[in-house]
């Protein structure tokens, strides 16, 4: 009886560990822009295939899982240091490996499995569903940019381009992929809505580097905060916030409904306070920094969500 209870408890712990390691809440930053791209294709060309959409969503999730699992494995030493030196809930990884819920080699193996499955789905989309010749190249861009963010030997995070690649792979790419696999072409609107989304996810990565700064210094990472310091990085953060706010309404020029302006105060109300906190140097206070991280993530999700709602409800003027 006791052995059975222990087995169930052990399985429950492992399952919980895998859920934590997979970081489900952070999948929204990839899925929402993909949904947006799908709706742009529908509104622009009246093209929508549910089976293609579902396969595409699963492929996007698998790419993110391969990225997260590989990151947890290759950033293990840094995550251990971060846990000792002031991480918050948005930094330092999930800690599932650090606390012993998942073995490191299992996370690495799972990243390879997720990567392989994503590639297979990419082949299915291009050759079975005939979604267009750019399907696989778009998928490969996501795999190379995401999976190798932390993975050796490329490890973008040590090459000084990690934040830019994440901006592309979580900003422009999912919107473009969602649109392309439905219509086999890209609406001009894709480029315009992608800019503030890319800016906001860039800032998500940037601000999340602040609590990891001491650990990243020891680890020798070459991210922006390590290379430029907190003061310069905070100014860059503010500049990107301004870019978000300036570019958010511009898709109206390419046919998005003017009703988007009714939601503009929502974006300002979330993004601007974080920018002001950065200008005031409040990133040195742990609680303030955690709030800045939360506001930055919310900004990204709200921008993607509002574009999706406006496109869905009011369509595109062509």
Search tags:
mainly alpha; globular; 12 helices; 318 residues
Enumerate how many helices there are, as a single number: 12
Over all CA atoms, what is the radius of gyration?
20 Å
Largest sheet: none
* SSE order, one letter for each helix or strand: HHHHHHHHHHHH
* DSSP helix fraction: over 70%
**Count of the domains:** 1
State the end-to-end CA separation: 68 Å
Helix-strand makeup class = mainly alpha
Mean pLDDT: 93
In percent terms, what proportion of residues is strand? under 5%
What oligomeric state is this?
A: single chain
Which consecutive residue ranges, at least 5 long each, have pLDDT under 50? none
């Amino acid at each position: 009886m006791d052995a059975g209870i222990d087995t169930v408890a052990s399985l429950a712990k492992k399952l919980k560990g895998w859920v934590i390691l997979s970081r489900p809440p952070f999948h929204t930053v990839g899925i929402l822009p993909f949904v947006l791209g799908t709706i742009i294709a529908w509104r622009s060309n009246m093209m929508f295939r549910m089976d293609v959409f579902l396969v595409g969503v699963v492929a996007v999730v698998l790419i993110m899982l391969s990225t997260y699992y590989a990151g947890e494995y290759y950033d293990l030493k840094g995550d251990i240091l971060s846990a000792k030196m002031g991480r918050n809930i948005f930094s330092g990884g999930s800690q599932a490996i650090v606390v012993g819920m998942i073995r490191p080699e299992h996370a690495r193996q799972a990243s390879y499995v997720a990567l392989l499955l994503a590639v297979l789905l990419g082949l299915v989309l291009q050759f079975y569903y005939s979604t267009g010749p750019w399907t696989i190249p778009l998928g490969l861009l996501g795999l190379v940019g995401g999976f190798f963010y932390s993975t050796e030997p490329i490890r973008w995070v040590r090459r000084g381009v990690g934040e830019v690649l994440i901006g592309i792979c979580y900003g422009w790419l999912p919107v473009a992929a969602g649109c392309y696999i439905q219509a086999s072409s890209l609406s001009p609107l894709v480029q315009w809505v992608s800019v503030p989304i890319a800016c906001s996810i860039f800032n998500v990565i940037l601000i999340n580097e602040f609590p990891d700064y001491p650990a990243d210094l020891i680890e020798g990472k070459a991210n922006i905060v390590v290379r430029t310091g907190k003061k310069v990085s905070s100014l860059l953060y503010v500049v990107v916030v301004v870019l978000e706010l300036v570019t958010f309404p511009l898709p109206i020029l390419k046919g998005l409904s003017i009703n988007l302006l009714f939601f503009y105060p929502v974006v300002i109300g979330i993004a601007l306070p974080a920018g002001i906190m950065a200008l005031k140097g409040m990133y040195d206070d742990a609680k303030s920094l955690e709030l800045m991280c939360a506001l930055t993530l919310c900004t990204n999700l709200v921008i993607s969500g509002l574009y999706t709602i406006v496109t869905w409800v009011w369509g595109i003027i062509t």
